[in-house]
């Protein structure tokens, strides 16, 4: 099954030479001869068993000759296949010589004969299975003798050259992990290897979850190793350099249009090398997701559900616990865009994590962040789904406040105790910032009624004081929106919180400095703007960007007194 994607290699160089010099080769080249020394393989093996190793060593030498001809290879392999049951562990040096044979890039006849030999070998002598698998996997990246990899070969029908997948996969996964290129290798090397790993899952579906875990784990290492600021800075520098080059080249010469068309667009290349590698891998992953989920242009529900199940397992194990990854999670974002039921399944998965007391608090907080960011940024989620999710979150928040109030304990703004609660509140505020227009569109009266029925005032004024721990950017925009529609007035709470913020003293190289912690939740929004160019072309039409309304400025100073009076009245009513 593994070798289903490595059937035929075509040698571009030899192919082109044969067409350019057909007449010269025909007139000047002698007839093809198969030169070989010693007897046949069966006789060699008999002599070797008797202690005569001369012909045996000569065979190994001929097979190891880099100038060996295709006809010789076919001839030897056919004879060796007929004796494969005799090639036990004592002949491993001969087998390893054959496995080192440069079969890639040779004629179709050589490749077919070589794969047939591998099939016979691992069937008759399972001791060589791992060695054969390692040899095949070694060709998953561009080799020295070729500038292309296995996924660029001419495919024939999927062939069954190795053992059934349930036997192979147990040995295969460790080999795939061990041979994964270092993440600092070239984009081309990583692209080829990941592409071929994903092709393996087509032939051996039972290892898809493990393969996705390996790939996404490597992609996460790239993702967290470069900050958004570094990527944006590299892009600015690249744009400046390209602008200078264009000015220098302008008017010097006119490049042929065909040449320009054949060159890859420089605008699609990322300025930061780590971002470039990640962009290439994200593009490969998204292409794989689409190929798996769509058959003849139609969504295949069964295959899509199975892929989502695998991705959610990887999400729980790797993505959710990883702080400040900015791009890898968009694989699930992209998959969920195919059908609303997929997005709802993802939201339901996050919701179960958030409300589960058995989950670690840090994962519950991360799930709330994913939930709010997904609801805010995914264009393909309709308002009805957004409202349903907000209703769930608010019901849980109000129930949490009820439980705290009924306990009789003194209010304490403690993130270690109430982290999931604060993250859920921030998810509500963030979602409302992005989705309030959609809620109000169509029927302003009903939309305002819905906002008022959310009872956000109770959330904002509760003793747990969520506005104190939410990001300032979120609280500011939330306050402006809720003031505009007279849903809740937050400015008095915000001002009081600002006065009560305790400074933090930190030691630096230049001495102690006094700062304030503006992100006590240590939160981030997983679906913040996508920065990668190639793969970003698939995300852009699905993504809700932030548009700053003209009436979002803070409340003018002359009206703050009126708002303060209104807030004091509200607080008095709440106490009563």
UniProtKB/TrEMBL annotation:
It comes from the Eukaryota. InterPro entries: RNA_pol_I_trans_ini_fac_RRN3. One of its GO terms (biological process) is transcription initiation at RNA polymerase I promoter. GO terms for molecular function: RNA polymerase I core binding; RNA polymerase I general transcription initiation factor activity. GO terms for cellular component: nucleus. Belongs to the RRN3 family. This is RRN3 homolog, RNA polymerase I transcription factor.
């Amino acid at each position: 099954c593994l070798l289903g994607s490595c059937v035929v290699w075509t040698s571009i160089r030899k192919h082109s030479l044969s067409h350019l010099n057909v007449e010269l080769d025909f007139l000047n080249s002698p007839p093809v001869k198969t030169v070989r020394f010693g007897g046949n393989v069966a006789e060699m093996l008999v002599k070797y068993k008797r202690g005569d190793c001369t012909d045996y060593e000569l065979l190994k030498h001929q097979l190891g000759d880099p100038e060996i001809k295709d006809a010789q290879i076919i001839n030897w392999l056919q004879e060796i296949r007929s004796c494969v049951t005799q090639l036990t562990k004592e002949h491993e040096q001969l087998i390893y010589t054959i496995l080192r044979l440069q079969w890639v890039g040779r004629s179709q006849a050589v490749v077919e004969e070589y794969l047939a030999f591998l099939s016979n070998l691992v069937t008759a002598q399972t001791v060589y299975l791992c060695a054969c698998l390692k040899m095949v996997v070694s060709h998953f990246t561009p080799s020295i003798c070729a500038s292309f990899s296995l996924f660029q070969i001419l495919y024939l029908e999927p062939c069954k050259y190795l053992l059934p997948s349930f036997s192979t996969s147990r040995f295969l996964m460790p080999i795939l992990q061990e041979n994964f290129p270092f993440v600092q290798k070239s984009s081309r090397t990583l692209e080829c290897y990941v592409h071929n790993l994903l092709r393996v899952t087509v032939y051996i579906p039972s290892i898809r979850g493990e393969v996705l875990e390996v790939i996404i784990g490597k992609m996460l290492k790239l993702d967290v190793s470069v900050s958004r600021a570094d990527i944006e800075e590299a892009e600015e520098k690249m744009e400046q350099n390209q602008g200078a080059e264009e000015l220098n080249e302008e008017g010097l010469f006119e490049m042929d249009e065909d040449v320009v068309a054949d060159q890859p667009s420089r605008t699609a290349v990322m300025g930061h090398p780590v971002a470039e590698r990640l962009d290439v891998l994200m593009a490969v992953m998204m292409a794989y997701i689409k190929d798996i989920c769509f058959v003849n242009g139609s969504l295949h529900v069964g295959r899509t559900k199975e892929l989502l199940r695998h991705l959610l397992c990887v999400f729980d194990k790797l993505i959710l616990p990883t702080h400040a990854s900015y791009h890898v999670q968009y694989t699930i974002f992209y998959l969920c865009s195919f059908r609303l039921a997929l997005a709802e399944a993802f939201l339901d998965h996050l919701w179960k994590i958030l409300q589960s007391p058995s989950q670690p608090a840090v994962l519950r907080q991360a799930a709330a962040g994913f939930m709010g960011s997904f609801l805010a940024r995914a264009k393909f989620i309709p308002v009805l789904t957004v409202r349903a999710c907000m209703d769930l979150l608010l019901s849980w928040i109000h129930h949490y406040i009820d439980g705290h109030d009924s306990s009789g304990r003194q209010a304490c703004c403690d993130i270690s105790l109430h982290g999931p609660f604060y993250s859920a509140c921030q998810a509500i505020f963030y979602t409302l910032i992005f989705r309030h227009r959609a809620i109000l569109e169509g029927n302003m009266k009903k939309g305002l009624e819905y906002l008022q029925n959310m009872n956000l005032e109770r959330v904002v004024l509760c003793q747990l004081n969520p506005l104190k721990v939410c990001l300032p950017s979120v609280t500011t925009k939330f306050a402006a929106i809720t003031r505009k529609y007279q849903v809740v007035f937050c400015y008095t709470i915000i001002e009081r919180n600002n006065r009560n913020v305790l400074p933090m003293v930190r030691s630096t190289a230049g001495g102690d400095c006094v700062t304030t912690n503006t992100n006590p939740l240590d939160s981030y929004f997983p679906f913040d703007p996508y920065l990668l160019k190639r793969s970003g072309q698939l995300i852009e039409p699905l993504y809700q960007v932030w548009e700053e309304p003209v009436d979002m400025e803070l409340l003018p100073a002359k009206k703050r007194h009126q708002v303060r009076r209104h807030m004091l009245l509200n607080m008095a009513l709440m106490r009563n």
